Structures are given as structure tokens and as C-alpha cells.
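Entry 12.
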Amino acid sequence: MQLGDKDQQKKYKQFLQRADKNKVLKALPALHEEAFAKINCLECAACCKNYSPRFKTPDIKRISKHLQLKESDFIEKYLRIDEDGDYVVRSVPCPFLGADNYCSIYEVRPSDCERFPYTDEDVFIKRTNITLKNATFCPIVIHVLDKLMQ
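Predicted 3D structure (C-alpha cells):
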């Protein structure tokens, strides 16, 4: 599938709206493992290059401590408040993403980053708008959706 394929997006949306939620939830763990075994995030990093996770209070505390910055200095240097009232990175790509696609704060990264792309969580089927957005750029989400639709 081509990333951003409008016809495929429509098929994904229809599938997610009609899918048996319990059946999908049961299938997700194995499909998640299979996708991560086949796809190397370090070859892509489209999430880090194009989007920002939310930085929640515990994330800000943990990361600023790790960087030996005061929370206010960390926020001022790296974050802004988005239209939803969440802290997100000031610019993309993420300032913590290296040229090699490695994250310089991986061990203390935001929980949104740790959980992404939610292919092993109920978020995948309960918040279909997020899943559909992620399917426009994440090969893992596409893999899982394609397998679910087979």
C-alpha cells in the first residue's frame, strides 16, 4: 500500500467502523509482535520527523531531570502549547531525533512515544481517528490493518 492512499484510507475507515472490537483486540498482540519483527522503526522514524507526542507533566519532570534542566527551562527551550492545550515540541523533526533516527532521550521518552503506534492497545480500535491518522505514515499501523482486513 502507498502511504497516504485515499482509497485505502477509506477502506480502513469502513473496516474500523464495522469491525468486531473483541475480535480485533484479541488479534492485536500477535499482529503487533509480527509487525515489529518485520519493520524496523529506525529505518523510518516518520513519527518523529513529522509529528509530536504530548508531553504530559510526568514526562516533563522526568525528561528535564534527565537533561539537568529546570522544568521551566525545558519547556521554554523545547515545547509549545498546541490547539488542544497540550505541550508538544516546538518544531519538527523532534529535537531529540538524531540523524541516525535514534532518540537521544529514548530511556526517558514521553509515554506517547513509548506507546506509539498503539497497535497493542484498545486505543487502536477505540480511537479510530488516531489509528487512521497513523495509517497515513506508519508502516506498522498499515501492516496491522492490512492483516486484520484479510
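Annotation: The chain has nine helices and two strands. The two ends are 14 Å apart (CA to CA).
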